[in-house]
Amino acid sequence: MARSMAIAALAGLPGAPVVRAQAPSLPVPDLVLPTGVEVIRIEVMVSGKHGRPRAGLQKEDFVVLEDGRPQPIVQFHAFARPAAAPPPVAPATGQPPAPVAEEEGEDLLPSRYVVLAIDDVHMGFESLVRVRKALRRFLMEDLRPEDQVALVTTSGASALSQEFTSDRAVLQQVLSRLSPKGRPLGWSDIPYISEYQAELIENGDVFAFDAAVQELLHAGLYQDEASAEPLVRRKARGILTDAVYNARLTLEALESLCRGLAGLTGRKALFLVSDGFVTGLSARSGAEFDLRRIADAGTRAGVVIYALDAGGLRSGMPLATPPASPRRPSFQSLGVIEAMRARGENAARDALHTLAADTGGFLAENTNNLQAGLRDLLTDTETYYVLAYEPTNRKRDGRFRRIEVRLPGVRGVEVRTRSGYFAPNDSRLAVVDRTPEEEARWEEQRRTELHTALRALAPLAAIPVRVSADFVSFEPGVSQVVVSGSMDVTALPFVRQHGRRQATLDSVAVVYGESGEVAATLPTEQTAMDLTDADYELLAREGLPYQRAVALGPGRYQVRLATREDATGLLGSAWQRVDVPELARGGLALSSLFLLKDEQGAAAAASPAADPDLRSAQALRRFGRDERLYVQLYAYNPGRDASGATDLVAQAQVLHESRVLATAAPEPMAREQPQGPVPHLSRIKLQRFEPGDYELRVTVTDRNARAIEMRTVGFTID
Predict the structure, then answer these.
(1) How do residues 365-389 score in pLDDT, each as one tens digit?
(2) Within 13 Å, how many C-alpha atoms sit on residue 249's CB side?
(3) DSSP labels for 247-278?
């Protein structure tokens, strides 16, 4: 009975409120938004003479403008790292020196999170080698011991780091996996056309176009300009298409990284290390990336982007042509090519400068000491001001709002802050018929936003998500991880039609291996909710459930569950690690602990049933004091006596703050069990415990094999 009951509980979630697909209706719906007033929070960096940070300013010194209109500042904090003072001299009295008071009006520095984003999409072999060397020293010498750091690449090809760590040894190991790829600087055959030159040609620049044509003629590949011109145009268009695609890879990665930090509290800085790139914006191809998206992501998530030019000090020497491209420009074209080279370098750096400036950071360039450049970026994160305001423009029209901060009474300073953000856009909630092209873009947006949630360096909390990843095996040689999730629907903007609440959620889970590679991707589930008020109240208490299982081999994994509200793009995510043991090695092993509760709820406690109808409580792990908690587990590889019988005993304990509060009597597990896992189900009454967080510990003793195994799981009593 116990095994069939547990399998049913793990395979489904009976008793959930009605969740069914609903075709869009034609009447214009009413929008039911979660309560709350939007507050825009910005970091402001102020520098004075010689670029030194300016500390000691007060709230009254600042004026915040949005689209040129003054905004009331509702919160203000000043942060500054005190300068190192000389050691105090002990007085002659022999008394200890008086403590040095901190500067009044400045708050303690919050936690600092630093993302080192290596733009391997736009970095040459030599640059990446220099960067790796500089980062090794930077990690060990310049960061504070408590700083949380993550290493990522913009290509996503190398799963360097999935979460923050302060362990420098781990970061050095991660850095050792950073492999140079070598950046192609253009197509190598004649005519050699750089990305910048291709952009000029596409924009109709006659000098850039003529330089490429003359290179073909000078090499003797064509006899007249009319024959050479079509090749130049095709090649320039192809190079620019590749450049725009690569730029999008980097820019989308940056946007995703920024938005993925929204769940963290503290100082958040992203250091983009790159040789630079062209965006293709001036060519207006339609495929270019709107840089305001990154400004919006930085504002929404509280992230400042800093950029480091990995190319170092530019020599200004004539253009070095790749060996595969024996370029021999004519004397007449040489000046044009050299001018384009210099302008191309500036254009590549312009993208880095714009990304940094739009989020309040800056670009460190023209230095061969990359570690010093990184140190300058880090120093800027230590003295700053945090201002928050409630926008006076409450329109939710999706337009970009421009932010400006001024210090009218302070002279000789430079002010850096975010350039702006996109206002919420309620028109996304309107029921519309999309064209095939619009639907394709919408689908791409869904994938991009879910990818952001899955690859975020910290859980996202716009939609609160709970997840539990648990090991179990029902068949020999087949190990499974059960992914149980719960999404908090109270954070969702519902559309109300005909007295019902409607919203759609996409949910997906991904399993990552220990080195960061994707081990499994579970199918995306789309849930269209069409709820009565009673259904909504039940979901508000229990959460929208998610449950899937995936077969995995032995190893240590991280399971991530992400969800996305379809109309607004709100995101939520959570993750948990799980170990899958090697059962084939033999020896006593246990499954994870699976928590269940009576389907009838608290009423079942008054009339205990011989065969209770159980449902999973694995994701939320929340129980009322008048409910009964059931815990299910399986034992593997038990010792058997001469008759083949097992002799296993399970004992449960409830702990609070590492102190044992209650110990249940030992319970024999199934004895007449054929080959396979031995199941066990225990029931625990909760009436004696006060509301709070607890730990459940189950110990299994194998008397035949004289072995002991233990599993623990946390739960909450309301």
Answers:
(1) 988 899 999 999 999 999 999 999 9
(2) 17
(3) HHHHHHHHHHHHHTTTT--SEEEEEEEE----
Indicate the pairing of strand 63-66 with strand 69-71: antiparallel
The C-alpha R_g of the chain, in whole angstroms, comes to 31
For residues 597-631, b (16+ Cβ closer than 10 Å) or e, as one string?
A: bbebeeebbeeeeeebebbbbbbbbbbeeebbbbb
Whether 56 and 104 have beta carbons less than 8 Å apart is answered as no
Is the model's pLDDT at 399 over the cut of 90? yes
Closest CA to 34 of 391, 429, 494, 461: 494
C-alpha torsion sign, points 255, 258, 261, 262 = negative
| Segments of 538-584 assigned E as strands | 544-551, 555-565, 571-580
**Cβ pair 385, 411 in contact under 8 A:** no
How many CA atoms, within 13 angstroms, populate the side-chain half-sphere of residue 659? Answer: 3
Distance of CA 508 to the CA centre of its chain: 15
Q: How far apart are CA 433 and CA 421, in angstroms?
A: 28
Buried residues in 30-51 as b, exposed as e (16+ CB within 10 A):
eeeeeeeeeebebbbbbbeeee
Q: Under DSSP, is residue 389 helix (H, G, I), strand (E, B) or coil?
A: strand
- DSSP 3-state assignment of 281? helix
The candidate with the shortest Cα–Cα distance to 355, out of 301, 291, 300, is 291
Determine the pLDDT at residue 99.
45
**Concatenated DSSP letters for 421-475?**
EEPPBGGGGS--PPPHHHHHHHHHHHHHHHHHHHH-SS--BSS-EEEEEEEEEEE
Say which range, 231-235, 567-571, 585-589, has the weakest mean pLDDT.
Answer: 567-571
E-strand spans in 581-676?
Answer: 589-590, 594-598, 614-616, 622-623, 628-636, 648-656, 659-663, 667-668
> 10 Å Cβ neighbour count for 336?
19
| 209 Cβ neighbours under 8 A, 6+ residues apart | 200, 201, 229, 232, 233, 236
Position 446 confidence tier, pLDDT thresholds 50, 70, 90 = confident
Question: Has residue 10 got a pLDDT over 70?
Answer: no
Helices and strands (DSSP H and E) totals, the chain = 11, 34
C-alpha 627/C-alpha 597 separation (Å) is 7
Q: Cα–Cα distance between 310 and 133 in angstroms, integer?
A: 12
**All residues at 6 or more sequence positions from 307 whose CB lies less than 8 Å from its CB, including other chains:** 271, 272, 273, 274, 352, 353, 355, 356, 361, 362, 363, 364
Is the distance from CB of 361 to CB of 353 less than 8 angstroms? no
CA pair distance 322, 687, nearest whole angstrom: 77
Instruction: Report in angstroms the alpha-carbon separations of 586 from 480, 589, 707.
Output: 18, 8, 12
Share the mean pLDDT of the chain: 84
- Cβ burial, residue 454 (10 Å; 0-12/13-18/19+): buried
Better-predicted residue by pLDDT, 21 or 225: 225
Give whole-number Cα distances, 78 to 61, 105, 106, 302, 315, in Å: 12, 7, 5, 15, 41
The token pair at 312 is 């170092």
Domains belonging to the chain, first-starting first, are 17-22+447-585 (2.60.40.10), 40-84+101-109+384-423 (no CATH), 112-380 (3.40.50.410), 587-718 (2.60.40.2550)
Torsional sign, CA 372, 373, 375, 380: positive
Instruction: For strands 400-406 and 420-422, give the pairing.
Output: antiparallel
